[in-house]
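Reopening this one. Same input as before:
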Amino acid sequence: MSAEEKGLAEKPPAAPETPVAETAVAAPPPPAPPKEPLTKKLFGYVRIFFSADPTWTDYLLLLIGTISALAAGVPFPLMGIVFGQLVDDMNGATCAAEQHDANPFRYEHDINDKVLIIVYIAIAAFCLIYIYVLSWSLISQRLAARLRNKYVSALLRQPPAFFDTRAAGGEVSTRLHGDMAALQAGTSEKVGVLLASISFFITAYVVAFIKQAKLAGILVSMIPAYLAMGLVGGAFFQKYMIKAAGAIASASSIASEALKNVMVVQAFGAAPRLEAKFADHMATARDAGIKRGMSAAVQAGLLYFIAYAGNALAFWEGSRMVADAMAGKGSETIGQIYTVIFILVDACVVLGNISPLLPLLGGAQAAFDRLMKDIEEPSPIDGTSDQGVVLPFETRGEIRFENVSFSYPSRPDQLVLKNVDLTFPAGKHTAIVGLSGSGKSTVAAMISRLQDPNSGRITMDGYDLKELNVRSLRSFISLVQQEPSLLDRSILENIALGLINSPKPEHQRLKDILHSHELADLAKKGKDSIDPAIVSSFGPLVQEIINLIQHAATEADAASFIERLEKGYGTYAGPSGSMVSGGQRQRVALARALIRDPKILLLDEATSALDSASERRIQEAVDRAAKSRTVISIAHRLSTIRNADKIVVMEAGKVIEEGSYDELMAKEDGAFAKMANLQTLGTAHKAEAGSSVSGESIESSSSASGTSVEKPSAPEVAVTPAPAPAAVEAAAAAPSGDEIAGIDTNRPLSSVVRSLGRFLRPSLGWLVIAIFAAVIVGGTFSGSGVIFGFTISSLNPCSGSMEKVLYYGKFFGGFLFMLACIEFFANFAAWSCFALIAEKLLYAMRVLSFRSLMEQGVQWHQSEGRSPSSLLTIITKDSASVGAFSGSTIGTVFSICVNFIAAIILSHIFAWKIAIVCLSIVPILLGTGLMQLRMLARYEERHAEAFNKATSVAVEAVQTIKTVAALSLEHEVLGSYQRLLKNNRDEMVKAAAFTNIWLALANSVSFLVYAFAYWWGSQRIMHGEYSQRDFFIVLVAMLVSAQLWGQMFSLAPEFSRARLAISRILGVIGLGSNDHVHDNSSPSASNNTDPEATGESSASRLSPPKKSGVQITFSDVSFAYPSRPDHPVLDSVSFTIQPGQFVGLVGPSGAGKSTIMNLVQRLYSPTSGSITIDGIDISSSQSSNTFRDAIALVPQEPALFDGSVKFNVGLGARPGTEATDAEIEEACRLASIHDVIASLPEGYETECGASASRLSGGQRQRLAIARALVRKPRLLLLDESTSALDAASEAALQEGLEKVARDTTVLAITHRLHTVQKADVIFVVEGGKIVDRGTHSELMARRESYRVNAMQQMLQ
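Same output, byte for byte:
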């Protein structure tokens, strides 16, 4: 066998995330595709290289790569001719040496000439291998870069509705990591290897037919057998691969949402339930992976069976030909037979080497098909297109709805809007009110064309919106959404994004600056980013942008809080704006909307998270703005729309009332008047307030209250789940690249092996079988060498009679056929057992890393620069890297190592003098391989960071697609994505050029070893020390080992990536409390143990809940976020809440209210002081987390998951128990959402979509409340829990909460004072302190800031 691999080179640096292969490919299960015709299958793969707009450089690289790869397959078959002549020479030398009557050294000159020819062929092979490996490596990298851009731009082109039916963030991460990795693995130099192998195969047959047509003709029968095996096996492989990929994508999506909403997961102890769902998908992937491994195992076994069976046939027929020649019936020499058999044996081994490549090529095509499905998906609303009418700047902005009906694609039978006719007059303020789910936000989405109506039409100044250019339309509209998203950049850059698509002529010259990195550089100056001296150094255009930003921030009432932040406008907003509080996020989003001075301002509950003082100031700004533009606002707080020119009341998708505020209030039985009555604070309170404050004094005191309410003594900080804006600074100091802070990635190999041993223990039986089979596979290579040497020797005419030659032909032919059968079973056993072990190992690693991440505290997740997207890569990218180096790859490597040892022992037994010299070449082979490995590892580490950052940009864009689309940021996001990857490209070329020298050397040194071995062996034969039999046993055994060793180093990148990935995964698992996984397809049995409650007996945890509420005591509690220890958020806070009390927390945005709530749940620990619940100190690190079982949280932004309504509500059940259908229904009735769910076609089994995107804001909030109530908590925490609800829903909910609150302590943060007017006690929080406490009436009497807030919310 032998130099077949003429340099079947593999794997130089592809882009960093190139986990070869099978397991890497994660994608959602596509619908069962129609059967493809064979031609389409064959040419579908070729299509990959001509996709995504290749340039002339790509065509040239394809041409050079293809020609050089095909040429690289030619040298060795030509060498076969030289080998054949050398066999004749050596046979002659052996006979001469044995007969002692001739001079064996007369053959020396001929032998040396032929050895020189081999050296020249080796040099040619090195050059050709280097050229094709480099070419294909570059082709692969350039193709991946083009497809990345195409894929990301295709996603950005789609409307938000496109993502309703997809698991958005997790899927994008999986595509850009897993699928791109699979694509690169299957389009890199492995294509060159395939072409060189095919060229080798064809050349081998051509040479064989020239040398000995009859024998070659017999061996042609192997080709159809190979083809049938490849096609049938490939089809099964592909089928299971697609199934596994779909399951992995679904699991990644769950992980993505859980990491994003880790605070809610921990508050509810929901990790075990989410883990059960995650593990369920991963179990499906594991089972499909095992079946895929079995189909690959059958392929591998058949491949070797056919090769060795063909050899057996050839030896038998060859012996008959030599016998005929001895009888004078022909002129065949043993050299000719040797040439044919040797190169055809080699051709078969080469085909054997193709077998591990075929899954990679299949994987690449499957990944490509998935990517292209999204890339080629037509977009009904393309925000990046230049088509359509561009509106003139003078557009007035009157919008009309004419008989518009609409339903969401995920629920086509349910109309959200029904024959709506509406006019929004230009230059007027129109408000839309109505029950939650009545279609208000849908109207807003349609105006900015995030959705298109099913029927009817919407016009702007007479133009149908569908006729207008989408970017042009959106340039006139600024939308502030109900749950606004900021991008993961500084506040300065976030506000400036509003200018990107501005239609104003004076803003056009600013666009180049906005698309550059100058604002990012300026933001790095922190507090000084708006310092006139520093700004002026950036030029007049930047100065102009900064002026616009400051003006917009002032208009949106954001300037005061931004300037108080430690880094001012340079403060990072964090992923989706999570580093600032809800109210702060709304104000920054409003500033972003106002900066372009839009013709139409569209406010969808834009002030729901603000206190009344902030809301009042913004309302005044909106009223001022409304004089010169069209304003459309959606509101639940009716006090905010008193000055609207027109109010539209909606119910169940229809307009039921229209008119001014006074007109609608005059209709006493009207829907609007009823809603208004529900929102008044009660006549007694009004009288009280009225007697103490006049209308004018409200106006004057609002500014006074502004000072007291809005200027906390400590600098304002983020008080959401976030670690404060400064936490982002940690990102700068955090380890970069593939390293994630706090996770040990530099484990020594011994530690990694020990840790893996624990995971492999359950599969020990399979491991023994796999190793035994791999030992046999490794041994058969050397075994075939022994048979080969004996056969060549026995076919030597001078060594025996014709009968002897015929006998040995049959005898050794039979041996080879026996070897073929052994190879089949051994390969099947080794590949399938290793696949089984690998899939079980991967399943355990994925589930345990998910469990471990969920067990870490919120503080851990939000410190040291960790982000959901970087932690998600451990589950998507790292497990893909491990998967790529498991299964068949491990089996192959093990067999190669066994063969290497067997070959050395065997060679020394037969001819130690030849063996020891051949062995001296091994360090050269090892050296080239190790150098390649080292170069690759360095390359990988250096470039991983850019790929992770770029992927994070794409994932974030998809998660905030509504914001990206509304602001027309598609080109800007794509530009950021491309910039992050651009610097890598030039370095990739350099790295590929250098690393591939070692790869080419590793794959061509074997030719030089051949030359050296022939020269040295011939010398020993001529000296009579050994026969040609001994020489050929050593040659085949040692040189097959040498070449297989080269092939093993071609797996170097996979090994390098897998080692880093395993270290990272084991580092994460090591953080967890246990590593026990039930190895069955229904993992929930093992996963319902509550990681939050380890150490607590199940009896105590599952004991029935006490009926009364809890007592909470804060004693002198101070708190600062770990990243900003010098900036206290709470300052010596003390209070006691009695069991069963309803307590309200009120105060301005950013005062510390959410921080108090986080401390009650022990999501953070106080810096000083103590917190006790029912007398137990929960602030000490030793305390258990089981107290959370009695607490339920309704967060400000309802974090729901991709699953059914029933699943989402059931997540609220106490750990270790499952909510019954009756309990879920009861909770939904209390939360006033049961009727909405019952009206859905699938009721409680209705899927909510990724992040519950298929539900309205109000529906999401009520579902979050139901999730909290199903727990029957003793402590209910409400954080702005009714901000997205209309008055009627809120009143119904209030009623439900009152029923529950009888046995429950309730702690509620609210800006709507009527929500807490029935509170037993209200705490007023300002500047991190509790500045006052009392009942509603007490505070109305004595606290001006409270009274002004209340007055501003009164309607009558």
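So the earlier flakiness isn't reproducible anymore. For the record, Confidence is low (pLDDT under 50) at residues 1-38, 681-738, 1080-1105.
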